[in-house]
Structure prediction request, 151 residues.
Amino acid sequence: MHDDITLAAAGTGAEFLGGLGTGGVAAVLTTALILGTRDKSEHQFSKGQAVTCGLAAGTVYTAAGHAWGVPDDITLDALHALHVGDGTGPLGDVQPGAVALVLVLVAYLVKLKPRAAGVNGLVMSTVFANAGGPWALIATGISDFFVGLAS
Prediction:
C-alpha cells in the first residue's frame, strides 16, 4: 500500500512538473542546496532543511549516475580507505550502521552551518544506502520519491 501511495504522489508530481529526468532532478536539488545555503540567500535553509535537501540530492545523484555519482564515489572510497565494514580498520570493527548513526548524531547535536549540514546530508545518503536495514529503507524511500519526479 505504501508503494502505491509513493508512486501515485511521484506520478502526480511528474505530471504537474513535466518530465525532468534524473539528471534534471539532481540539478534542481543541487541548485536548491547551493542557493539555499548561501549566507546572503533571501530564504536561507535551516540546518534541518539543508540536511534533508542534501540527503535527497545524494540519493538522486546515485540514480542519475555519470558525473552526478562523484560524491557517492568519494564517500565510498573514504569508507573503504578506513576499512569500514571489514573489521580491519584503524578503529577496529566499525560497521556502516555505526557510521550512519554517527552522521545522524552530528546532524542533530552539532551546531552546523546550513552548507556543512547539506554536505553531511550528501554523505548520509551514501552511508545509509550501504548500511542496509532501516538505513537503506530511508535512502530508498527518499530516492523513490524524487526519482519518481524524473519521469
Notes: The radius of gyration is 16 Å. The chain has a mean pLDDT of 88.
